[in-house]
Design brief:
The complex is a heterodimer of chains A (138) and B (425). Chain A is α+β, with helices and mostly antiparallel strands. Helix content of chain A is 49%, strand content 21%. The chains are: A alpha+beta (138), B alpha/beta (425).
Chain lengths: 138, 425
């Protein structure tokens, strides 16, 4: 299989590799895929409480070059977006940007899932934090 | 709070310093195919332009010259496996040889029985042929293999019944290089009057094959795995003790004693013969050399990387084969990082089916480790300098990809990956 130049670039120079403290209230973590399937992506976002803007994004991926590139690109795209804006990123946008062949479309699906899972995790944290805040206010 | 991982940029393929004496790209995928030996090519060349005759032309010198080339090749192949020249049938390659042997026996011995025994780790040329025969009413037993890749002879004994007409078990596996106990299998078959076919494609010319000593009735051979040409192969068909008969797969002019019609690929056959002649002379010495290089590769990689696992028996193995799983790293991404080196992976991503290697799964290797496997096939033209370069590139790429792997990070944190509830499962 030959790879597009963009996939090769992300593979050779992955953006935003790393981890953030997943227990932090501002950090949302998405872990999707399974080792048995040959793809696992961990995508993390750090969200500004005031503006809901994703200020930082990090990823780690076990998977083929296209999976690494899809998640690397996803971190680039979510950075600077609000949480709601980030949710509009679709897997087919990733397919287009990286020129992924049909057999690699599942990599882009996983990257979209990872974004949604990270945002979902962050939202859950915000909701569970709310009653505590109101209790303090009373 | 965040921890950044620095990915060294200098690992880019073209920027990498190449040690002296190493020419890129390196070919180390010799189970897929081999580069032709120049001595083979030299032997073949006259048969394209000068001795271009049809070996079936019995009444002029052009035909005789071609026939002489074919008969010399037949003798050379026979000599390599302890057979006689008349027992060698030429085909287009191993897939055809496997089809001809299995379907040929199935049809010829239909009155005697309808049961065939094979193993789950066989090549698709055998497995898919057996599957087709199941559609025609044959019964097929697919023997499991043990953790080391070998079949259990007791399983084979238990599987045999009075309807068994054929056992087909490969001599050496194409992915893990594991050598099956074919002499013992052949003995069991002959004691019970069952025909024994072996796909010997990977074993011929690499380890000793003797059809008499090993009680082999049918053996598939191909040119391109032994530094010969592609598109030419042979099938050994035993002529006595017992005499084995097969129905032809291709009907026509009655070539090859009626078993395989079609004008012979004379240059290819001459090349296959020469490749076998070279193997007869050099196999013993070459096996020591390849085994040494293989062990050098294994030791260099495994002394510097933890959590690497060899797939299949090291004891019963082709000298040039190494198949390793690198935990937490997906095989295709590893191949991408060493793309100036030609090797193969059992990862699903490298196959058309998105399923990881069925051979590795049969050993009980988990899907996760099957996705992480690399097959190295060391051959006649590989050098120690190449082996060292390959080992070093693999090590640094695995280290880089592990830093990128969430699984490696989780394992380092003490999380048992088997206990994790994965979203994708």
């Amino acid at each position: 299989m030959s790879y597009s130049d963009k996939v090769i670039d992300h593979y050779n120079n992955p953006r935003n590799v790393g981890s953030m403290d997943k227990s932090s209230a501002d950090v949302g973590t998405g872990l999707v895929g399974a080792p048995e399937c040959g793809d696992v992506m961990k995508l993390q976002i750090k969200v500004n409480r005031e503006t809901n803007v994703i200020e930082e994004a990090k990823f780690k991926t076990f998977g083929c070059g296209s999976a690494i590139a899809s998640s690397s690109l996803a971190t680039e795209w979510v950075k600077g977006k609000t949480v709601d804006e980030a949710l509009t990123i679709k897997n087919m946008d990733i397919v287009k940007e990286l020129s992924l062949p049909p057999v690699k479309i599942h990599c882009s699906v996983l990257a979209e899932d990872a974004i949604r899972a990270a945002i979902g995790d962050w939202k859950k944290k915000q909701e569970s934090a709310k009653p505590v805040t109101s209790a303090v206010a009373q | 709070m965040s921890t950044d991982v620095r990915i060294p940029q200098e690992l880019g393929v073209t920027k990498h310093a190449t040690p002296q004496g190493v020419k890129l790209p390196i070919y180390m995928d010799n189970h897929a195919t081999t580069r032709m030996d120049p001595r083979v090519l030299e032997e073949m060349l006259p048969y394209f332009m000068e001795k271009f005759g049809n070996s079936a032309s019995r009444n002029h010198s052009f035909g005789w010259a071609a026939e002489e080339g074919v008969e010399t090749a037949r003798e050379r192949i026979a000599k390599l496996i302890g057979a006689t020249a008349k027992e060698i049938i030429f085909t287009s390659g191993a897939t055809e040889s496997d089809n001809l042997a299995i379907k040929g026996v199935a049809e010829m011995y239909r009155e005697k029985g309808n049961h065939i025994i094979t193993a789950v780790t066989e090549h698709k040329a055998v497995l898919d042929t057996c599957k087709r025969l199941e559609k025609y009413g044959y019964r097929v037993t697919y023997l499991p293999v043990q953790k080391d890749g070998l079949i259990d002879l007791d399983d084979l004994k238990r599987a045999m019944d009075d309807k068994t007409i054929l056992v087909t078990i490969m001599a050496a596996n194409n992915e893990i290089g594991v050598l099956q106990p074919i002499a013992e299998i052949g003995k069991l078959c002959h004691e019970r009057g069952v025909i024994f076919h072996t796909d010997a494609v990977q074993a011929i010319g690499k380890v000793p094959i003797d059809v008499i000593k090993q009680n082999i009735d049918l053996a598939s051979i191909t040119g391109h795995k032994i530094y010969g040409p592609k598109g030419v192969g042979a099938l050994y068909v035993r002529r006595k003790n017992p005499r084995v008969q097969i129905s032809p797969g291709i009907d026509g002019g009655g070539h090859e004693r009626g078993m395989r019609s079609g004008t012979l690929n004379v240059p290819g056959i001459v090349g296959l013969g020469k490749a076998c002649a070279i193997a007869s002379e050099e196999m013993t010495r070459e096996a020591v050399q390849l085994g040494g290089l293989r062990d050098r590769l294994r030791d260099r990689i495994m002394s510097r990387l933890d959590e690497t696992y060899i797939n299949g028996s090291m004891e019963h193995r082709l000298p040039g084969n190494l198949n390793i799983s690198f935990a937490y790293v997906e095989g295709e991404s590893l191949l991408m990082g060493i793309n100036d080196i030609a090797v193969s992976s059992g990862s699903a991503c490298t196959s058309a089916t998105l399923e990881p290697s069925y051979v590795l799964k049969a050993l009980g290797t988990g899907d996760d480790l099957a996705h992480s496997s690399i097959r190295f096939g060391i051959g006649r033209f590989n050098t120690a300098a190449e082996v060292d370069y390959v080992a070093d590139r693999v090590i640094e790429t695995v280290e880089r990809l592990r830093e990128l792997s969430p699984l490696y990070e989780m394992a380092k944190e003490g999380i048992n990956l088997k206990d994790v509830k994965w979203a994708g499962e």
